[in-house]
Hints:
Layout: H1 21-25, H2 42-63, E1 72-81, E2 89-91, E3 98-109, E4 112-115, E5 124-126, E6 130-133, E7 159-167, E8 171-173, E9 184-187, E10 198-201, E11 215-218, E12 235-238, E13 252-254, H3 258-272, E14 294-296, E15 299-300, H4 302-311
Antiparallel strand pairs: 1-7, 2-6, 3-4, 3-7, 5-6, 8-13, 9-12, 10-11, 10-13, 14-15
Helix pairs in contact: 2-3, 3-4
Amino acid sequence: MTIPVLTPPTQSELAVPYLTPAGFAAYPTWLDLDNLVPGGVAALQVDELGEALLAASDWAISACENMPLHAHWVQGENQRTRPGGGGRVYIKPRHIPVRAITSLSWGSSPESMSADTLPDSTMWVEDGRQVSFRPGGGLGQFTGPALEFGPRVRPSQPVYVTWSYVAGFPNTVLSASCTSAAASVSVTDPTGILPGDVLRIYDVGDTNPTTGASEALTVASTYVPATPAIPPAVTSIPLAAPTQFAHAAQTGITGFPRKIIQAVIAYTVSLLMRDDVSAEEPASGFGPAARTSGGHHGQSGGLVNDAYEYLKPYAPVWRS
Length: 320
């Protein structure tokens, strides 16, 4: 019996939570983070919080139809569509938002595909949720027979598209510490980071005004992203303006919208809440009904329901 060649997965299980324990600790939740493991040392408390954040991050993915929200490389996605008005082909990515397109081939049949020349001046990306292009548009300088690049598509015929792209929001950690006034930062995963991106570092400040505090960093226009690699390679990201504070290695840096982070925070709090904390001091206002309250997705409430609402704008759109 012939054993088939096995293809390794292009994506692995989520290993980095969407918010680091330090970032979560900086958010006022009224939770006793020093007693998550009763009697445990500080390192165990951090590990337990990290596991809860990872579980909440994985839940956020499942709440969006198992679509990763962090930046990732989608390879070889196949779609079938038809040309619209003006001969343009419209495709809806299964993962959003599209950040960069690394390859695209099209044809009137799967047996006859033509690779589009990128960048293609006819390509149009709408809010990262829909992409359109004119078949052959990237070959505008060519004036010979179209047969050299496969059969011409017609409005009544289906068009087959195979493409690879980067989707989602950058989310990584610093691979090395940086000082204040640093001109660049080194990250463990540069996937999805583009020139001009504003990335946020969520860090816990201290009495030293130059050490460990949250700030926003803008990626320099000179940065040239490389084709994504699996596993990702540590990369130095030049900045448009130097850092204001120093940050330790493994500090989180992210391009997530605040609502995604808020969803992870809300769900993590719901995982860590005790059955009834309404009598605790200081008063938190989080009674047993805070975790639940309403009837959404089979849940009865509050924090979980809020988390679903925060994620609604980021759900996939390809079936709509």
